[in-house]
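Q: I'm building a small set of examples for a reading group on sequence design. Run inverse folding on the following structure and report the sequence directly after it, with nothing in between.
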């Protein structure tokens, strides 16, 4: 197994565990105001707010790192197979 893939998987598990712990321990409501987009403040439990911010960050990171890989199916000219 690739060590980099294993590290990323363990890191994601730790982050998700942290998300669960935050959800269990932060149930008091918080107010979120974003004047240009929301006309009145949004009041939700702190864990829901954290989850929403985490989801936005995760999706943003996925979009920014998606693609850009090596193109497959082309071989270098002049190489012969044995």
């Amino acid at each position: 197994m690739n060590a980099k893939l294993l590290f990323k998987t363990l890191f994601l598990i730790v982050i998700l565990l942290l998300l669960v712990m935050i959800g269990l321990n932060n149930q008091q409501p918080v107010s979120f105001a974003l004047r240009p987009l929301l006309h009145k403040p949004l009041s939700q439990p702190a864990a829901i707010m954290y989850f929403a911010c985490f989801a936005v960050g995760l999706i943003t990171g996925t979009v920014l790192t998606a693609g850009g890989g090596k193109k497959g199916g082309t071989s270098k000219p002049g190489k012969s197979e044995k």
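Residues 18-64 form one domain.
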